[in-house]
Each structure stands twice: as C-alpha cells, then as structure tokens.
Amino acid sequence: DPFLVPGGVGYVSGAWKVVVLDSDGGERFSVSTDDPGLAVSVVRGSVYIAAGGLFSRFDLETGDEIWSEPAPEERPVRAVGTGDAFIVTMGFTVGSAGALTARAFEEPDGKAGWTADLPAQLSGPALLEGYDDGFGGELAPTMLVSDTLSLRGWNGAVVWDETSVEGYRFVSRSRTNGFFAGGPYFDSVTEYRFNGTVAWSRPMAGAVTWVTPSPDGHVLVGQVDGVVRKLKGSEGITLWDYGAVDSVQAQAPPIFGANGNLVFWGANIGIDSDPHVSTVTPFGQGLDRWDTGARVTSGALSNDDDVFVSTLDGRIYLRDAVEF
C-alpha cells in the first residue's frame, strides 16, 4: 500500500524497493531491500524499514541511513513510536510460526531497548499506539496485538494483558480512549476501556472480517456474509445494519468522506467478489451503488474528498464527491 510522507508519497515497487516521491511526482529517494517480507513505517519524521533481518532508520528528506540494527523477526509489521524515546517493531520469532517478538529501539541512535515475546497460534502480529491520557505523551504506551492484547509502557512494562479464546484482530483506538477489537472469538467484538476492563462484548451473526471506528465515535463491523453493522460506542448496541448485498462474501473496510459518509466495496477474495462500490450515510441510508464492472481491489480519498477506485481489470476511476 502507498504511504504518505510530508510533501509526498511513498510506495514499495515490484522489486521490493522503497520509493519516496515528492508532490510533483519526482523521486526524492529510494532504498533497495530485495525482501518481499519488508515493512515500511513513517514515524515522527523518519522512515523505518524492517527487511533482511535489520531494522533501519532513514532521513525522510535525503534517504540517508541514520542507523541500522539487527531485528531478525519474520514478516514484520509497521512500527510505531512509544513514549518519546522508543520505536517498536514486531514480527514472527525466527524458527517459530506460533510466537512473536517485539523489539524496542531508542529513537536517536538505535540502541536496543526492551523485548517482549507473545503467543501467535491464532492471530498475526499488529502494533498500535496506545492512549496518552493518564500517562503523558512521553510515557504513552504501545498495544501489542496477537493471541493476547498486551499494553506495554514506554519501558516495556505490562500495563495490562487480556487473553483470547480464538485470537485478536482488527484492533483500533476507540473514542473513549480505549480499544475496539475483533475477539476474543472469531464472531465477537469487544470494547476495552483504557484500564483494560470490558465496556461491552457481544457475538455477531457471522464471523467478523473487519472492525473500524467511525468518525462519530461509534464502530462499524463487517461480517463474512456481507452485512455491515454499526454499533454504539461504549455500549455495543446495534444502531443499524446494511446488506447482505448480492453475492458479497465479505465487505472490505470502508473509507469515510468529510461528511461522514461510508464508501465500501466487496472484499478481494476471488472472482465472485461484488464489483459494486456502495455509499451509505452515517445513519445507514444507502445513497449510491455503482457497478465498476470488475472486482474492486482498493479505494482511497483524494484531497478534494473525491474517491479513487482501482479494479482488477487494470482501471482506475475517480468518482466525484457529489456522486457519493
């Protein structure tokens, strides 16, 4: 996926090269990795690349390497900052597909900080910046997501842990300074308060395929049967549901316009995926359902709140915001 940088955009080429472009399309710099399992992150004005057993920091303007340290984990995820002193990366422990290792590095010089090991028999790795309230920005913790939710302080100390039955996935910040999570079962969604206690947890009618906070403080949930359901933040009651729509096996997570409208499409899971792009108001009212003629592979908002849509047949469309 492309990633935004100040004054430009970056992407990973087919040759596993990280390329950063300026806003006029000119190349600012590139870094070759030759590693299909690389992860790229932009954190606090630097580019971090986990590839080939190394975790490296690069200057965002020149592409010069600032430091590079061993991080042998496989299939790493995007790194995050914790507090104001550390950068954390995480991936599968070498030689063990059922375990994860998180590593923290001191931001200025890459000096090794703390490490944490987590089980991963049920879930893949993910990192999420924690909340600031009650800690102060310099002490803000980091959420480590696997079979366990483990909130770690800037120094790696456990703030709280929560163990699942069938793994955690799709974890995101909630408006109440806690976390939404798909789990602890495949077909359940839970909101955790900032102190780790459960605000609510409820089963869904089908397996959960994504969980996305909405701009108005609630949460949207996609189900494998194509239903999109909006739940009330801090309570979990159903506000509305939309679908299931013709042969949609699972919706992709939505993107949100400036007016709060949701734009979503069928998931990328085969030739039977729904080719339609649908638009729904924050209140669940369907506004538009447009047939692209082919499987939709991705979508993104433009700076003018128009919608870019790419399809499997090699086309890119720009839909006017008025039509959404």
Describe the structure.
The protein is mostly beta strands and 324 residues long. It contains no helices and 31 strands. The chain has strands at 3-5, 8-12, 17-22, 27-32, 39-43, 46-51, 54-59, 65-70, 80-82, 86-92, 99-106, 112-119, 126-129, 142-145, 148-152, 158-163, 169-173, 179-182, 188-192, 198-203, 208-213, 219-223, 228-231, 238-242, 255-256, 262-265, 276-280, 286-291, 296-301, 307-311, 316-319. The strands form 8 sheets. Strands 1-2-3-4 form a 4-stranded antiparallel β-sheet, with no helix packed on it. A hairpin with a 3-residue loop joins strand 9 (80-82) and strand 10 (86-92). It is globular. The chain starts with a strand and ends in a 5-residue tail after the last strand.
How do the helices and strands line up, and which of them pair or pack?
Layout: E1 3-5, E2 8-12, E3 17-22, E4 27-32, E5 39-43, E6 46-51, E7 54-59, E8 65-70, E9 80-82, E10 86-92, E11 99-106, E12 112-119, E13 126-129, E14 142-145, E15 148-152, E16 158-163, E17 169-173, E18 179-182, E19 188-192, E20 198-203, E21 208-213, E22 219-223, E23 228-231, E24 238-242, E25 255-256, E26 262-265, E27 276-280, E28 286-291, E29 296-301, E30 307-311, E31 316-319
Antiparallel strand pairs: 1-2, 2-3, 3-4, 5-6, 6-7, 7-8, 9-10, 10-11, 11-12, 13-14, 14-15, 15-16, 17-18, 18-19, 19-20, 21-22, 22-23, 23-24, 25-26, 26-27, 27-28, 29-30, 30-31
